[in-house]
Amino acid sequence: MVQEAAIEMFVGGLVMDPATQAPIVVLKDETGSVTLPIWIGITEATSIASAIKQIAMARPLTHDLFYDLLLQLGITVQRIVITELKESTYFAELILGQGDKILVLDARPSDAIAMALRASAPIYVTQQVLDQARVAFASQGTTPPSQASQEGAAPAEEGETEPEGATSSSDFQSLDKEKWEEILSQLDPDDFKYKM
Fold this sequence. Notes:
With 196 residues, the protein is α+β, with helices and mostly antiparallel strands. The chain has helices spanning 42-52, 62-72, 109-119, 127-140, 177-185, and strands at residues 6-16, 23-29, 35-39, 76-86, 89-98, 101-107, 123-126. The protein has a single domain (6-186), classed as Bifunctional nuclease domain (Roll), CATH 3.10.690.10.
């Protein structure tokens, strides 16, 4: 379990990278002065969007199922911490509580964020990750799409692929609930398969 300094951050929104057409979850601190983009898969973006917009799906998504299981077992999601940035991959910990027992699970940040949103649990990013992301971003010599003032790196999460057919660079946060329900209902099951 990470014991170093961490900053609480919030989901500032979901955007599409116009260059790669990959979804990006954008984390921001309370002041909005620190921003960290994390490239994620379409499945995780859908799960995060449904939690942000509080869209009730006809059948539970994987994160809904896992969260419901935790509740049935008397386990709470206390917080998540994005702990490492190694070889362009972010790592996170899901901190759970059961009575006076603390459980720490390794997780991809996108999955951890989806769980935190469902549990209204805080999201933290270690200062080391923010510093590494800033260095990685500076060494690329470019600015992330539609986020020119960001201080974070733009690596993709390992194992997550770019979705096909995504064409918009609009901010998903600005879409209303009805529009999200329409988007989600029109998704093809093949959109959720990882390409090898």
